Amino acid sequence: MQIIFDTNYSAIDFSNMNSEIFPSAPDRCPFKDCSMPVKLRKHGYYKRFFISKSFSGILYVRRYICPICGRTVSMLPVFCLQYFQYSALDILNILCELYLSGIPLNRLVKKIKQDFPFIERRTINYYRKRIILNRKLIQYGLNLISPEFIFVGAIPENQDWVKTFLGIVLRLHPHVFLCDFSNITGKSFLTSEFMIA
Fold first, then answer.
1. What is this structure's pTM?
2. Which top-rank group of organisms is this from (predicted)?
3. Buried-exposed string 109-134: b where 16+ CB fall within 10 A, e elsewhere
4. What is the pLDDT, as a whole number, of residue 196?
């Protein structure tokens, strides 16, 4: 399990093992079938590769273990997206520029290659498709974050819905959205999930 937390530290601060920059261990096991009121213990770090405008390299992510059930929890800074190398904030910024500014995809790819030389058109298309495939999960998360995000009336087409979703993220502020969405659903908005139970 991964818990997203907000932080004022930058990615470069996480490129060294430093337990001072991570939140304290949870006081209760976050796994629902355990949920024991016991403080989790430090359980080392794991490395993950990260790519952003300001830093690309290895980050160290703090892990905790429940002494009762033996399962581990990772504390992931908000700018990391579960199972993705690129920064969550950069992915959102790229998608906002694509959908909300109306820039053609080819021109956008040329523009962002200045900051991300290895990004390809297919990577951005992958993010676009993933949002549409995750529409039910994203809408579910938004509904739980705030009832004002529940759509009424006709169901908008996918492209209109994505623009509305990105506008909501900008209004909420990306950090707030990423933390709230992950804490409510247990997933990122790009997690491969086609339906919810």
1. 0.82
2. Bacteria
3. beebeeebeebeeebbeebbebbeeb
4. 43
